[in-house]
Amino acid sequence: MSSKDNIFDQPMDAPPPFVFDEAVAQVFPDMIKRSVPGYSNVIAGTGLIAGDYVQPGSMCYDLGCSVGASTFAMLQYIRTGDFRLIAVDNSPDMIELCQQNISDNPQANRVECVCADIQNIDINNASVVVLNYTLQFIPLQQRSQLLTRIYEGMNDRGVLILSEKLAFDSEAEHQRQTALHESFKRAQGYSELEISQKRAALENVLIPESLSTHMQRLGDIGFKDAQLWFRSINFASMMAWK
Ligand SMILES: C[S@@+](CC[C@H](N)C(=O)[O-])C[C@H]1O[C@@H](n2cnc3c(N)ncnc32)[C@H](O)[C@@H]1O
Fold it and tell me: Which of 8, 20, 130, 209 would disulfide-bridge 213, Cβ 3.0–4.6 Å?
């Protein structure tokens, strides 16, 4: 059980830029469930998609794994007896908790938890690659390069699952979606202070892009049939095949 997220509940002079440190890692499951509409559905769906598209003898990657939610879902739904899963995060606090969480799982021997920048790891023989709410933290000008490296490390007919917060081209739509997302957070028990301080902390740290930008880039890189499979308010999940 993770602790309750109260990281932003006291007034701060100027909230510092958001980081995935020990304090965030300790409350992360509660924080992400109460902040990202549809999170639990996306995690369960990630497991189902992995179960459908994993190839025997191949690798699965959970890039920006945090404390391991997508890794757990994949272990739950993959039925082939022959795969390995690499879970990667560059936050030592996240990867330590991920490692601890996985150690009790009967399939722990299939999983390697790696503390590294996902832009520097080798990706090979991959049939499933998961980027759940992580690309949005990579600098804009480095996103194509990362996705290209992922594409090159994937097997034919391998699947990429990409989940992200969305931006909108229309200012009116952006305002409506942001207001609805804030209503969602209020309904999850966050105060106005928590919402506004977290918004300030994430400014210039989490940079969302529009659905059309994602789809266009996936196509340009060579992915076939990029599809939206889930959306809730301003958060979406796509899947794309090599
Ligand atoms: C919002 S969390 C991802 C949540 C997780 N995928 C899940 O669905 O529960 C983003 C994660 O990406 C990690 N991250 C951000 N930039 C990274 C990078 N360049 N390399 C590795 N991990 C990174 C952060 O440390 C954080 O744990």
Answer: 209
